[in-house]
Please model this.
Amino acid sequence: MRKTFTVLAIVILSLSAGCTDFLDVNTNPNGPQSVSANLYLPPMLHWMVTSPQFDGRFVGHYAQEWYSTSALLSPPGTWGKMGYDPGSDNGAQQWRDVYWSLGQNLIDMNTKATAEQRWDLLGVGLILKAWGWQVLTDLHGEIIVKEAIDQSRTQFDYDSQDYAYQEVQRLLDSAIVLLKRTDGAVDAGYLGVGDKIYNGDRTKWLKLAVGMLALNLNHYSNKASYDPARVIRLVDSSFANNADDPLLAYPCTSTDFADCNFWGRTRNNLTLYRQTVFVVNLMNGTQFGGTVDPRMTRILAIDSASTTYRGLDPNVPVFGALTAAQQPRNFFGYTGTGGLGLPSRYIFADRSKLPVMTYAELQFIKSEAALRMGDQVTALAAYTNGIRSHFQFVNDRGIEAGNPVTITTVTRDSFLASPNIVPATLTLSHIMSQKYIALWGWGHDELWLDMRRYHYTDLDAVSGTQVFRGFTPILPANLYSANVGKLVQRIRPRFNSEYVWNRVGLDAVGGLADDYHTKELWITQP
Amino acid sequence: MGVPSGVVVGSGTGTLNSFLYFGAPYAPGTQFYNNVDGFLRTGFSQKHGLSFSGATADNTINYRLATSFEKQNGVVRSSDLNRINVTGASQARINSWLSTDLSMIYTYANNNQVYKGDIGPLMGLMLWPQNDDARNYLTPAGTRRRLTALVSSAELDNPYFNIAKNAINAKTNRLIANVGFIITPFSWGNIKTNLGTDAYTTQNLLLRNPESALGYASNGLLDQADVISRNLNALTVLNFNSQPITNSISISGLVGHQVSDAKSTTDAQTGIGFLDPNFVSMNNTSTRSTLTTIEQRRLVSLFGQAVFNYKDFWYLSFTGRNDWTSTIPRPRNSFFYPSVSTSFIFSDAFPGVRRFVTGKVRLAYAGVGKDARPYAYRPSLQFKTTSYGGYGYDFWGPNLALKPEYKKSVEGGVELSFLNGRLGLDATAYRATTKDQIVNDIRGSYATGFILFNLNGAATRSRGLELTVRSTPILRPAFSWDMTLNWTSSGSIVTHLPNGIPESYVSDTWLYGNVRNGTQVGLSTMSLTGFFYLRNNQGQLVIDPANGLPIRSNAVSANFVDRGYDRQPDFTIGIGNTLRYKRLSVDFLLDIRKGGDIFNATEHYLTARGLSMETLDRNEPRVIQGVLRDGRENSANPTPNNIVIVPGAQSVYYTNMSEELFIEKNINWLRLRDITVRYELPGRLLRARSASVYLTGTDLFIITNYTGLDPIVNGNTAAVGGSGAVGIDFGNFPMPRGVNFGISVGF
Model:
């Protein structure tokens, strides 16, 4: 009996040390460590389209796309006065999405795609990487590129904007080469599982890469190294028409609304925003010799009394002197906060399609480049193309939002026939003001960089009118106090990432100064 | 209600524009309703229990069976707790070398609560206009009656509507079972084995009605989470009886082994878009999403203890324990920690002193290791709810170098007893340091590719002192009085944070405004950090010359700062008394606390809306003490502020007030925790062996310098880790006074 028990005791006690399998329960059962390469793609594509809209709330104030009627200080009293929200991550959603939503996920996807010879997926991955650096450097100037995505570091050095621009070009060049390949495991079906923008069609991704390169090179317009001829060539090999537009259709089926349009009424981000007097004057004829833009009734909101299109002056709070009947409706078309569950307008419905870049945008880029080269004919053709295709864009988005009444071809053509719109001698102010209308509401990153390239109020050398017709920056007395009278030129890097945890890196580029946001970008300087 | 013209007209049917109270005074003759009094009720609870116990004549088998039923209705309508308990236990001596015991406890609890914070009925109650009867919460058509023109989600719920239409419910079924064996095959020792299981299922439900402020945007929101948990524990100890080594020294000890396995599975579901607004079921929702979360942790330990005994008055013991855990990567998942302790009963060693005092002195050093939470060191992909699904990394980055945290403590104590046990004194002091403490959810630059990390590297130092005085001041045959006084003072300081991060905080405690449970190196672990007012280098407030108001710290040039706010009390005292007179006994417990700060967020919330008593003098002109921000504020001659403001005309005085002004410092209290009066009835009265009746009062009074509702507050629940949200008061109901009456009878 004793022996049995002694043996039993020894057995029980010895079991413990050898049970390595027993302790092997720390592999997370709630999420895999690694998945098929095409499954990394959907969230990254979602953020490529959606992230600029988050920041568009505030960039839209800088560019006077809209103005919030909120009674709180932010955004009308901070961003609306060309300032920022101290201590807040507002205006830095793209920082979060490039470094985290893309970040390591993109590296993992690209590594897998390379190993599996999926050149089309790798091409899309490089487009995403290039997109990330492009939008970040255009918003923030100096950003972290070389040392990015490294979990062993705690301090990160910033790279110059020049380096960031070159890196974008390098990535797009590689993407273009890869997207031309048809060997290896290139498979539209496999890519299409994760790609709901182009459904796996690598030829369209190729056009997008070329278009992004054109956009990048066009930003050098203030520099001696600007090459407009190359920009024109690239635009010509990019999108052929609106059917090439990379559009993301928001399904809006999730209970947390994460897959609904950021601008839709359900997510309630745009409800208190109203159009500014600047954008109204661009479309109601004031800035174009009296020719009313037919797109105005589809894009902008009429007043409560349904008589006139009015806009707000961001220098005064809320609606200023407008009476209740004169106040413009919300962008969904209803007074006050209405519109929940009801038909919407333009790109402001829960299930709208938003673009990364449009054919119209590229045509305006081509037109600007051609004009700067002195080629009136090309400039005029591209300019007219741009307006025409944006009319198509407005019609398409309107139908999706629940507004089936489209602008007829006749109306469009009579608008284009007006010499106020399509003059004999095209000027930069025509091109940039019409490009602004084509980008209004969704193309905030590019729209704001355009304004900064022209220093907000530059005059067109030929006609003497402002390039951005009628744009009046915030009056010096009303500017955000930390600006010390200067206009805003960049957004500060994300607060809870950089200003708390990477101050050393920021300090090296002067980012800790209160007026860092007024420091001009390298790309807009000669 | 004075508001600027041109405010957006919303879809609400009311006429007000907000719940801000900065307008003109009410017209004379306005009817006011006392909404607060009518809302709360007297809570009623009942608890009944029945227990049986017995044994065989030779005491080889005994049993105990008990059941109790409890039903509590809280002071807030719709809050209640029902609980049923069934316990069975039995011990048996099978033969000369084997004894067993078995116990099983089953509990069922059903708990309804109300929401806390600014979505709770307390805030709604305080904000509701007093010239409106809050009981009238439905329109004649049966929909939510609204007072403002704001959209539904912007108007705070009427408190009656909130408790009638929103709900928080938890039902728990729990079974705890234990089986033990004691095997004594040899004379020099025995083996004790204990196998235990704790299995429970909790069903949580959170309901937000489609018309309420919370549920409006999604047309109703229903959250259900079923947590199924099963914890297994097996403990085996081989005891060695005391064996003499020499004449005066003997040794005893044990060797043991423990295995524990804890697993829980949470199946959670969210439903939005209620079809029928009032039917509560997941089947009534039009869009649903689910999430399953599994968590498992296993721990295997081996431990041993040796105790040396010198002449029965000096003991020296050594213990060592090695744990193997599943949550730390190999090979660091095995960690060893020892302890040494000694106690010396000096009154047995020197019998001469026994006339005056008996007692012992003890000293101990202990090390303890601790592992991490499951899945903490390797990132996994998460299914994303953004367009078209797909996978992406969750917030947490990798830390393959994760190791266990370690705590070393030294403790010394004295126990003394005087006057034949009439007076006893215990004193204990301890010092402990932790190193490699794991700080979860550390943030860093997003350029790492991740947002949060779980890192080792924090270190803390804590100290404590505890004194207990046990006395029997009066001891007579018919009357006696026992008193126990316990004085405790303790605190911890953070001595090191990983990665040199400037601050560590628990984001769940950031309930309100710009104050949170943040700690920095050199600060107490219970400190508060925030965006406080700008001050010049002499600590004076810096005033904005444009409006005469102080300036909140610009968060770019100042992080969340520490201004010395600390929620840790200086000391606490508990005094328990028992008085006995013949058949009557009175027990009462007094609770005293000194020091420690509390953030009264409720008061700030009300002040920013013009409802706090602090705002009564809003029409008095005043000058805020401080210096003007004219460039000379940090010089030797700053310009004192001379701008007169009238808060009534400049309501931003209140709406932009820093939360700093509402952190109340050095809160003390004296409260009567409970008092019980019990009377032993003569048994023959009810043909019973024993019978007694009792009357208990709980939280009968409190004397405190805290201006809020109740200083014993926790803004969140105990589930928040670390020092949690204790001392942050936002929308918490105070502890109610309770009076209980009961009778217990034994047969």
